[in-house]
């Protein structure tokens, strides 16, 4: 495993009940609100069937429903067109791990993303804050700090190149040099490396440099990013692509991988966002950092922050025109969509939890950590997995966080909802009758995936509302998380093999 994720300040609608919250739906988004009519529009959009959608080149905030993996991949093909000035290539190879030779020949995959018309100064990146970063992170930080241009990215799966017995940075640079040679670039410093996979294993740099990189270069194409989205996967169940087209015709396309070790505290798993818009470097870094903070930093699958988290945005500057404001919003939407896709694609995930915190008596950062505390509670995650509305576990998780980190905060007006039902108000649970139990369990079952494992059948969530009361605070955030299933344990018990 290798990557990480966190929670989400999204523009998402949450339905609430009259005696627990105001009788209208609301949108958690700075400076924006919504009435119940907006909620109806959201519901219609989120339940839209794939068969009824028209073919478009952009992804909506809420993806349509899909009847099969084939339909999902067919849809991704329509939204994966690369921006001008980019090409991608992928290839497979094999290696024998120095640390675990008994496993025999293992498969490794390499991906190259190239700017075909020369280097660009317009690129930005955010990296993990983990104190044991991978060697590619160290190389990437140096590249970013130097202010130099970029012309290619090289990504490998299977081995994360973190704290290995060899010289990890030298291994990463060897692969970068191989890419520079194969693409006839002026310097290896024009190549940014990323690795994801087993922590502690040495990168098979020679196998990548001598076998995988040359084959990937031969496979370069400039039509679709979907091959790259597939190639960077590890335990991901399906590829993730989001895209937007701006008014001047410029395009933004993003891909991401990440299914476990997901709770970044500054960046995210591995994510690459490409655009042909003309965006100055300083503005791109500022906009990317802001988007990362509002999206990838607001979700969690398992609470573990990776040593390899990386998000990179690169602009080829092929399409002229000042679309900075429009680009910033589109970048946020692409990151928002990818972040949601990551949670839905989490290892063993069968439910996505959406925790909407309102009127919080503290900072956005504190509210975000409360949301993570809820979605990371093993007991509550297991309850959601089993469609068991054990609401006491939700209250316990909230009480645990507030008691430890905000003991003086006012919780006297706290109200909790699950789905469209108020379950806690005025210091007491509101759970009388079998009908309530049945409704709460039904809400969880409705958000479950069922047998779908290699595509996202729908975009439904287990909706959890946490309202501290209108006179208590003003901070609102939305955090996404996943349940905890037996499949998650199986995947991570056998991960290295």
From TrEMBL:
Subcellular location: Mitochondrion matrix
Signal sequence extent: 1-18
Catalytic reactions of this protein: L-glutamate + acetyl-CoA = N-acetyl-L-glutamate + CoA + H(+); N(2)-acetyl-L-ornithine + L-glutamate = N-acetyl-L-glutamate + L-ornithine
Domain of life, per lineage: Eukaryota
Protein role: Catalyzes two activities which are involved in the cyclic version of arginine biosynthesis: the synthesis of acetylglutamate from glutamate and acetyl-CoA, and of ornithine by transacetylation between acetylornithine and glutamate.
GO molecular function: L-glutamate N-acetyltransferase activity; L-glutamate N-acetyltransferase activity, acting on acetyl-L-ornithine as donor
Pathway info: Amino-acid biosynthesis; L-arginine biosynthesis; N(2)-acetyl-L-ornithine from L-glutamate: step 1/4; Amino-acid biosynthesis; L-arginine biosynthesis; L-ornithine and N-acetyl-L-glutamate from L-glutamate and N(2)-acetyl-L-ornithine (cyclic): step 1/1
Residues at the catalytic site: 268 (nucleophile)
Primary location group: mitochondrion
Coiled coil: none
Site feature location: Involved in the stabilization of negative charge on the oxyanion by the formation of the oxyanion hole: 196-197
Protein name: Arginine biosynthesis bifunctional protein ArgJ, mitochondrial
Site (Cleavage): 267-268
Keywords: Acyltransferase, Amino-acid biosynthesis, Arginine biosynthesis, Autocatalytic cleavage, Mitochondrion, Multifunctional enzyme, Signal, Transferase
Family matches, as Pfam families: ArgJ
Protein family per UniProt: Belongs to the ArgJ family.
Post-translational modification: The alpha and beta chains are autoproteolytically processed from a single precursor protein within the mitochondrion.
Positions that bind substrate: 234, 257, 268, 347, 492, 497
Quaternary structure and partners: Heterodimer of an alpha and a beta chain.
The keyword Transport belongs to this UniProt entry's keyword annotation: no
Entry EC no(s): 2.3.1.35, 2.3.1.1
